[in-house]
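Hi everyone,

Forwarding the result from last night's run.
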Amino acid sequence: MSHVNRQRAQALMQRYGLDVLVLSKPENYKWATGAHPGVASFFRRAGACLAIVPADPSLSIRAITTDLFAPLVRKILGDDCVLTHTDWVETADIRSVMHEGGFAAQLTTQVHQHRVSSFHRPATFDARNAFKQLKELLLSTDLYQKRIGLDMDFWPIADYRLLCEFFPSIVWLDASAAISEIKVVKSKMEIDHLTHAAIIAEDGMKHAISHLHEGIHRHEIAQAWAEGVSQSAKKYQIQLTGQWEYITVGAMPWQGGGQIQTGDVIKFDVGCLVDGYSSDSGRTFVCGQPRPRTQEIANALHDAFTAGLEALKPGYPMSEVYRLASQAMHRAGFKSFQRGHFGHSLGHDTFCEVPPFLSAQSEMLIEPQMMLAFETPFYVDGDGGFIIEDQFLITEHGAQAVWTLPRHLVAF
């Protein structure tokens, strides 16, 4: 199913001066259509799949996909909403003629009778064929002369030039910001995916924490986290599509670390993926009694987190979260502390950090049904990596944390 809130999309597209979106990024295509973008999308080139989203909610979302994946897309969008182009994968559907008997070669030739003599498959896929179909679709739906937006933060320059050759009279508009703003408010299914992903990641954390002791190696901690994740996924009967971890040990936060020694900081920044939707949360621990400077850093980050959380509510601009967290760090004595953002949206993309960001520049208002990761990290060569990060569902009443683990520095 599509995750596009058509009414929200209409309002935002009108604000950005857009009549229709043409989405080529595979993650955007899946979000808009609910369908797999196809194996051709693995090449990360524009044209492998295209989703067409009109601002007018009365007009259907349409798709252009490869012939291999067209049947699945048609089941979701309907036969009239899907156009196709060829990829490299040869197929044959002999089900309609199997009753006649005969050898496989004979049956294959029979079902391929509709192919013209010039038919051939490209080495991978040919974006020109997809753009021909796009032109036909835009003309047939009276969208050709409208204001058309692209997810330009994805388009390779070579593919964009080819697109402009096919459509010399169209001025393509950059819809990247509009798309991010539409996507930041999640559907129920998206919220469910992100919530389950976070719960499983935290279960992995709890399992890993139970294994912490002086002398354990970073790789053993990571393995314990993965084991806990696997156990949790089985318990909830959820098939993960991925998982990732940035677990570091010791005084150098970017070097991973080795065996835990007394005084070492252990930073967990972990996530799991459900249907491509990635969670993102983290905590920090210390082996034994923390050094005074370790505790000083941890206390400052906790104060910053508490301060920023006051603005993580509907109606507040994202920049206010940033301002409050920054001010708290400065009050704690870290006058030079400068971080680009204190969190981000979550969703289905190539990376767990999805725009918009909780940054000084973002005046976007926080809304219900956003799923945001709020974090106060600090990486100090000589003492270690520190992070407090929670995944929050924004409700009408405020921010609802998915994780339950304490946020203060925990010693073991």
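The first strand starts at residue 20 and ends at 23.

Cheers,
N.
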